[in-house]
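INFO  loader      accepted 1 record
INFO  loader      residues=441
INFO  predictor   begin
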Amino acid sequence: MNQEPIVALATAPLKSALAIVRCSGDGIFDIVNKCFSKKIKLINEKNKIYYGYIKNSKEIIDQVILLAYKSPFSFTGEDSVEIICHGSVLIANEIIEVLIKNGCRYAVNGEFSNRAFLNNKINLIEAEAINDVINSVSKESKNLSMLSLIGKSNDLVINIKNKIADIMSLIEVNIDYPEYNDIENVTKEKIETDISDICQNLKQTISNGEKGKIIKDGLKVAIVGKPNAGKSSLLNAFLKQNKAIVTSVAGTTRDVVEGEIILNGIYLKLLDTAGIRESENLIEKEGIKKSKQAINEADLVIYVVDVTDKDEDLDILENIKDKIVVKVYNKSDLVKKDDDKLYISALTNDIDPLKDEIIKKLNLSKENYQNPSINNARELGLLKKCYDYLNLVLQENNDGLSLDLISIDLKNAYNCILEILGEETDLDFTKEIFKRFCVGK
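INFO  predictor   done
INFO  writer      dumping tokens
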């Protein structure tokens, strides 16, 4: 594959001890040789380290360590060079400029990873995991993304892919090659058993993936309740700082106030909302509108109830009825606790019972933190689509449809799996059929 040489800064554009300039593509060694004090020569080596100077004509730009990688033994699968220079943004930019002058072009976002994907160095799951690792907000989310990056999550999808391919191959052989007497006949019972097994596997994979997504991406949590229920005090207690204004005047919060915490390795984006009630005040009405929008976008809702208020708010209950809700009774310091309600006191920072209940609601096991999962939104969406197609296959099989009609939705399910991996979906399936034959056939 012919790829023009590209260059970019691989580290953050900040003042630091060291910086890395990465370049890759056809003829990259010749380009670097024009501005490096030594000549890159990789004859029998896969990679080699050099020490020398990057120059612009005769002017020395910097003293560097240079790592040269011969194709296909690099991240991109191409001839590649990584230049470790002193961590001045000025120096890094000068190195990039001289490489561009000698034949490189500046890389666009994600181009190095895209080339690695196109050159079959990584699949799409691993490519997306690179971005997930970079954007990790907790050690737990980083560890989960790393499992995908090093290929541990691939097996979950490849296992499903192979099982679907097995039954598809058998169906195709039965349809197109009936003269092979030693090929297993595809019966209604065979399809029912095999597809049901795959569906059960998919269902578990999707469930684990959704829990993995919580660990990786975190949750939006809306704090809702009547005016003066203690929502802002609760946000402050979570954050351990006075971010939200707290007064005894109902309706003080007029806008959504945000805060972020890590709870048991889970990133929570907390949204302190305006109290929901009937109001003629235009500013407060706008705040209430934003509160309802925050509820709609939230993954979890903390419904704060003032223990001294005996009346439930029907409007709030209506707005949160389709959400995962943790109902909490605030201002426990004002009453005697004589039942099993979830009591807290935001004023005195007594909110540990609420934290425990949130973790309990998420229903995460130790395995969810440690085992690989398909937790990317795109990948999960395709897994669910595959699951729906396979359930259609079960229905069609039950209704007595012919094998050629059943194979259409089976192929659609298979294409969903190929799309997850970033593989071509318009494949000639003949190879899949014959590679399952015995040796000598």
